[in-house]
Amino acid sequence: MSSAVIVLWSLFFVPEKPTKKQLLAEKQKVENTEAPAIEKTEIVKEISRDQALEESERILFENENIKGSISLTGGQIDDLEFKKFKKKQGGEENVVLLNPRKSKDGYYVETGWAISNKNIDVPNSKSIWTIKGNKKLTPFAPVKLIWLNNQNIIFEKEISIDDKYLFTIKQTVKNNTDKIYNFYPYGQIVRNEIPEITNFFILHEGPLGVFTTPDGNTELIEKDYDDIQDKSFTINADAGFLGITDKFWITSIIPQENSKFRANFDFKNKFLTNFIETEATEIGANETKSNEIKILLAAKEVRVIDEYANQLKIEKLDLIIDWGILYFLTRPMWSALDFFYQLLGNYGLAIIAVTICTRILLFPLAQLSFKSMSRMKLLTPEIERIKNLHKDDKKKIQVEMMELYRREKINPMSGCLPLIPMIFLFFCLYKVLFVTIDSRFKPFYGYLTDLSSRDPSSLFNLFGLINWTPPDFLLIGWLPLFFGLSMWAQQKLNPPPSDPMQKKLFAFFPVLLTVILAPFPSGLLLYWCTNNILQMGQQYLVLRMTKVKTT
Fold first, then answer.
1. Do residues 532 and 491 lie in contact, with contact meaning Cβ atoms separated by under 8 Å?
2. Over the stretch 477-517, which tens digit does the pLDDT of each residue have?
3. 320-338: per-residue pLDDT in tens?
4. Cα(256)–Cα(291) distance, rounded to whole angstroms?
5. What's the predicted TM-score (pTM) here?
6. Is residue 310 domain-resident?
7. Does 318 map to a domain?
8. Inter-axis angle of helices 394-408 and 380-389, to 10 degrees?
9. How many angstroms separate the CA atoms of 90 and 8, rounded?
10. Domain count, the chain
11. Which residues contact 549 (CB under 8 A, 6 or more apart)?
């Protein structure tokens, strides 16, 4: 008997021979229940993934999107890779999500039953399950596992898989005794160590869940790995799901519908994300009862996640994709990109199309701003005349300039109006390109083969003519340079700053932005360059049409 279950039993402990009345009372309310812990003393072996896979007998599974195996030791899903997603662009090696628990980077999912009676054996991580019937899991053929304890109680797991990423585990207990027992279904995700993460503030990677609490509120909970190393997190819920998220992949558990459970994020030598139902499943003498748990092991494809949210009726399942606090903007931004991608067949063209749409949307505001800036530019000689005329009286200069603006009906601040929505749109597109899998390895044309990564060319090796790979900080390619040139050209259309120091700073600004934005996804720079070209065209036309009368 593993120490994990012993710990759990001690928390659930009731008299060794409980009466029926006591069992019924326990069914109504269970206090101080916790999901099963893992063995703190378990040693993780420094063995390869292949070696770990060979240490136990396995059931293979496969569909159109994923393949892997389930270990008969513990009945754990601990081997899964994505067939459509490669580790490197153009490579042959698939992205691997789950690994056996005995390997250093172990990452697996397990389900089972806990019981308060310490005299009753329940299957644990070391139990050896037996296959009954079919020996390969496919969308058309579920598999059944059986484990029999010393008290003649039979535990069954019927595991099925759909054609995408969803596993359904129907757990059954056949009580072949003349006594009544209370069982508590649980499920947990275990990760041996912190994986390689992006560690960027706009993206959450680590334990998360969406929970509907007893007071009726539904909330998203996100915890970093460091958070739960410092302090565990527990919440009681009436509905929801929990899991561990990576940038593009999700491992999650969905408890049975209409069940109350306690969710827990913890660190006990390993990272745990688990739940246990807080209302017991009472199984009488010679009675059989079941519980169903769903496990989603998925690439975070927006359309697929939305389908599962509707199919399983799970509120806010789409929040496993980190849309952020600007959900009301980032989600429509993805929808627009997806629409044009389906229409045009090229993600770069989709970005350009979205840019054009945002320029049309902001056209009235930009028109007002450009008219103001154009009139300001034409007033530059008059402003210089006022400064020279009253160069020793700054107060007089301010009064004269304000009178000039009033007479010409110009608001100097109106030129900044489009910047506010543009900043939000820029951030939203950046967020969408960064957190969604849709742009991963998506090409544009020519050398731009991945719009989700930085421009790979560099000025400092003459764009590949010199056989030398510059360090990252010198990777300033065609797109960043074009962006910098477009910023410089834009400045020429704007009224120059009157202060000499500001003039120098503004002249340096395009260079600074070129260096800062060079590491950004090339899809984002494609958007910004297109936006600058459209903006310059509109601004130039407004400048040609604008006239002012000065005295």
1. no
2. 899 999 999 988 888 776 666 667 777 777 788 888 898 88
3. 999 999 999 999 999 999 9
4. 7
5. 0.83
6. no
7. no
8. 150
9. 48
10. 2
11. 408
